[in-house]
Amino acid sequence: MAAGFFNQLADPTRARPISAGTQPADRIHPVVIEAMQEGGVDLSRSPLEVFHNSAEPRNVP
Hints:
By secondary structure, the chain is mostly helical. 28% of the residues lie in helices and 0% in strands. The chain starts with a helix and ends in a 23-residue tail after the last helix.
């Protein structure tokens, strides 16, 4: 949910969230999708991501 709000508010040329569970579900829970839509964020088409410890930070100017 935090990544959804971040994506809605942040400038994608300056920052992007690295947020996901280490064992994500196969779908976003429908209640989460509904709650986020009430907040103006559409997660219905959001991909599920897996966090890897090997992720390297990206340099942002």
